[in-house]
Design a protein that fits this description.
The protein is an alpha/beta fold. The chain has helices at about 15-30, 50-65, 85-90, 105-115, 130-140, 150, 165-175, 190-200, 200-205, 240-245, 250-255, 280-285, 285-305, and strands at about 40-45, 65-70, 95-100, 120, 155-160, 180-185, 210, 225, 265.
């Protein structure tokens, strides 16, 4: 069987997403270790800092009976100029799978091209598929949506930067046919090619995708989601971004527009007082920290799906 990678939500069919979510809920309900990966090793490559991705993948691999190997790029020969091609080819001979958290999505694509084992995107500048699967799991859990049909009735709103999180939310909404609104300043709206790819699915899946700069479109939202205004790699733009995004803060006034059953999500880390107020962060900590917890169950489902028959 040919190896399969998870670089983007678009690498998954709606059927595969449903199966991954179902398996994630199954893992959460039983919360016990399985010895299915005995003798298997997962490489974890980190170019960027990480808390949730690093710990959830490490814990998931251990609880599935496998061994995680942490690979900081500062200590790899990539630091001295070894090519992505050569690194991927060599690591493929040692490991059963690789999770990569990188600055450039193109590097992960190249890594997957030359790897003979499954490659999982643990975050790039383009997408964060593992995070978004946990987000959808959390939305289903809090809104008691047991089917994708029920999920389609939930209005999901993201406010802030059109970053990797927004891109993956667009993608999963397109593939599953969800009701998704992205609210962002005009100069930070999604790139045309990213938006067009998502819109290309709407006729077949029935997705209701809206892109706007009007915070009034958060009206009747069942989910309000935000992320930091300055993602890793954009620190030089911090002052400019703070000014542009300040009207898009998740605060008490914004929540007044939402439905009475609205939950708030944040992929974390949060900068309290910037993209989300301290008050709202504390008020909705249950959904936000459950969202983080659900990363563990989703990582288990992903590993089982992609590494279950590998190596």
């Amino acid at each position: 069987m040919a190896k399969k990678d998870l670089l983007s939500i678009y690498d998954l069919s709606a059927k595969e997403i449903k199966a991954l979510l179902s398996k994630s809920f199954e893992f959460k309900s039983r919360k016990k270790s399985l010895d299915v990966f005995k003798g298997k090793i997962l490489g974890l490559i980190f170019e960027k800092p990480s808390t949730r991705t690093m710990v959830s993948f490490t814990t998931a691999m251990l609880q599935l009976g496998g061994t995680p190997v942490f690979l900081n790029t500062e200590n790899l020969q990539r630091k001295r100029g070894e090519s992505v091609h050569d690194t991927a080819a060599v690591l493929s001979r040692y490991l059963n799978g690789i999770m990569v958290r990188a600055f450039k999505h193109s590097d992960v694509e190249e890594f997957a091209k030359y790897s003979t084992i499954p490659v999982i995107n643990g975050l790039t500048d383009y997408e964060h598929p593992c995070q978004i699967l946990a987000d959808i799991m959390t939305i289903m859990e809090f809104h008691k949506a047991k089917t994708i049909g029920a999920l389609k009735k939930i209005k999901i709103v993201f406010t802030g930067d059109s970053n990797n999180i927004a891109n993956s939310l667009l993608a999963i909404s397109a593939v599953l046919g969800l009701d998704f609104t992205l609210i962002s300043p005009k100069e930070y709206l999604p790139k045309k090619e990213i938006l067009n790819k998502a819109l290309g699915y709407t006729s077949s899946t029935g997705a209701a995708i809206k892109i706007t700069s009007d915070v009034g479109e958060a009206k009747n939202a069942d989910v309000i989601y935000t992320d930091v205004w300055t993602s890793m790699g954009f620190e030089a733009e911090e002052r400019k971004r703070k000014k542009a995004f300040s009207p898009y803060q998740v605060n008490g006034e914004l929540l007044k527009k939402a439905s009475s059953k609205c939950i708030v999500l944040h992929c974390l880390p949060a900068i309290r007082g910037e993209e989300i107020t301290e008050e709202i962060m504390d008020k909705y900590e249950d959904s936000i920290f459950t969202q983080a917890e659900n990363r563990l169950y989703v990582q288990k489902a992903i590993l089982l799906h992609f590494l279950g028959t590998a190596g």
